[in-house]
Amino acid sequence: MASITVELVSVDRLVWTGEATMVTAETTEGEIGVLPGHEPMLGQLVENGVVTITPADGERRVAAVQGGFLSVNAEKVTVLADWAIWSNEIDESQASTDVDSDDEIRKSRGDAALRALRRAKMTV
Questions:
Q1: In Å, how far are 1, 25, 46, 95, 116 from 29, measured between CA atoms?
Q2: CA-based, 20 to 30 A from 45: which of 93, 105, 107, 111?
Q3: One Pfam annotation, family name (predicted)?
């Protein structure tokens, strides 16, 4: 099966890099699915989005992201997020608390985290 190099990077860490068969990301233009051979593009990530990566040699991975960009070229997909966390790293009770915060950033991150948890529980 064809694959493409993918990097998921947040401001403070390299979250994941490897070969994947598909990437989906929520952008300001809607949810975009990227397969190997996709046309080059640049998209802006939503403030409380979800990115899903299907590695070439493993199970689907789901991340909560906040802001940033999705860049696609012939060789690589780069997701550069202001903040990103894998669904298996999320503390669900903390995310639920954050959704009710008066702080807009915490609220947005809590919402993204809960959405990523829901997406991770979905079967493909």
A1: 28, 10, 9, 26, 19
A2: 93
A3: ATP-synt_DE_N
